[in-house]
Amino acid sequence: MQRQTKSVPVPQLIFERSRPGRIGCSLPKADTPEVDLSKAIGQTRDEVKWPEVSELEVMRHFVNLSHLNYGIETGFYPLGSCTMKYNPRINEVTASMSGFRNLHPLQPDHTAEGALEVLLSVYEILEEVTGFDDITMQPVAGAHGEMTCLMLIKAYHESRGEGAMRTLVLVPDSAHGTNPASAARCGYDVKTIPTDADGNTDLEALKAALNESVAAFMVTNPSTLGLFEPNIQEVCKLVHAVGGQVFCDGANMNAMVGTTRPGDHGFDCMHLNLHKTFSTPHGGGGPGCGAIGLKRHLEPFLPAPALKRVDGKPVLDRHRPLSIGRVSSFYGQFLMAVRALTYLLAYGKEQMSHISRYSVLNANYVQARLREVLPQAHNRPCMHECVLTAQQYKKNGVRALDISKRLIDYGFHPPTNYFPLIVPECLMIEPTETEAKETLDAFCDALIAICHEANTNPDLLHEAPTTQVVGRLDEAKAVKLLDVKWQHAPETPATV
Ligand SMILES: Cc1ncc(COP(=O)(O)O)c(C=O)c1O
Fold this sequence. Notes:
Blueprint: H1 37-41, H2 45-48, H3 55-67, H4 89-95, H5 98-101, H6 113-130, E1 134-136, H7 142-159, E2 168-172, H8 178-185, E3 189-193, H9 203-209, E4 214-220, H10 232-241, E5 245-250, H11 262-265, E6 269-272, H12 274-277, E7 292-294, E8 306-310, E9 313-317, H13 334-370, E10 386-389, H14 400-409, E11 416-417, E12 426-429, H15 437-456, H16 458-463, H17 475-480
Parallel strand pairs: 2-3, 2-4, 4-5, 5-6
Antiparallel strand pairs: 1-7, 6-7, 8-9, 10-12, 11-12
Helix pairs in contact: 4-13, 6-13, 7-8, 13-15
Bound molecules: pyridoxal-5'-phosphate.
Pyridoxal-5'-phosphate binds next to helix 7.
């Protein structure tokens, strides 16, 4: 499974640095009775084969390993859809304040008024930014937010006696996979709505699919094609006309912050990836927050407890007979609210639109600079990310993946590959608002050079990456047959 590149040596494992008798620190002789650990863990110290290394070696080993990581702190991270923008360090400073960090979720409300105020302040700012009447931050990921919205929609239809007849959720063919998954998880059948030649929802296909069995249409705006849906108000009207609800996948909200509001477009509810737009750590390493916004008619079904302002003070409303219940323990990832509030206040109302304006500007800059070598899938200005196709290089045996792997040799993290699924040889690039023009230029220069290589020396791309400890892996096996365990037997080569 592993293919080591020729030029870069595999760093030693900590076990390989081990020398008998070498120690990290000496402890004073115990003044308590000695316990035979082998009895407790069933192995002697020698059998466990812990590495015997000095403190300095441990330090160097792990610091050197950490240098092999690529992160937003070390370089440009152009993943589209899975936005990786810089989270300012000040967010971490506030989130680690002991007053927030040491709170217990079960302590009485009156002793946690500051925390409730933080949560409610984020709710109120998000209400204003999105145009929705209410917010909850209980969901802990974007997909979780999607599912929570569908649960609200389901409860709403049921409260009107229409639960049994509304069995269908419509999802565009460009949707993120979590959309149909969330619908299916809520017990709905899923029908796909095609995208038209301009990259918008195919209105004729939508009209043909609409009837009274439709519970909801899940629309991503801007779409995963990086395009604003110009017919969004008409789409919402059409769905509402048959009694359906319209959900906005708001993972791409950083294209709209401070500029336009989904609540004004006609949506009934949306999810926000706080970990994308509002600068908190991403789901996998976060954990994240998939806050949701909703219109007044869905409010009775909000997860309990709901947070309200009563006489100017935050109050937890626990008596909610129509609530869908809790969707996570307590109030979600509370420290995400602290981080998000820090970020929101750092921008302030006046500068909030800089987030969307610069993210759109940067993506259009990249799109324009790459036009000759990687044309866009749909010929129009993009929003916060551009979706390009590498199809022209297929005749040389070069695929989007090869271009991405070669980018690693040029020192860049690759963009998203092969998503959305409807674009052949797709490369989806999201620069985000935080990158400087020089970085974007260097990235575009690298891609232009790689596309030239794709015509003149395609093997360079097939062999890439050649500058890393690990070369190109069999990605299916890396997932299905993951092997990261150190084998002790000397004849067995170590794996990375
Ligand atoms: C368009 C879109 N919708 C939904 C999601 C799901 O968000 P999460 O990864 O937080 O579950 C993503 C995540 O990348 C996304 O790009």
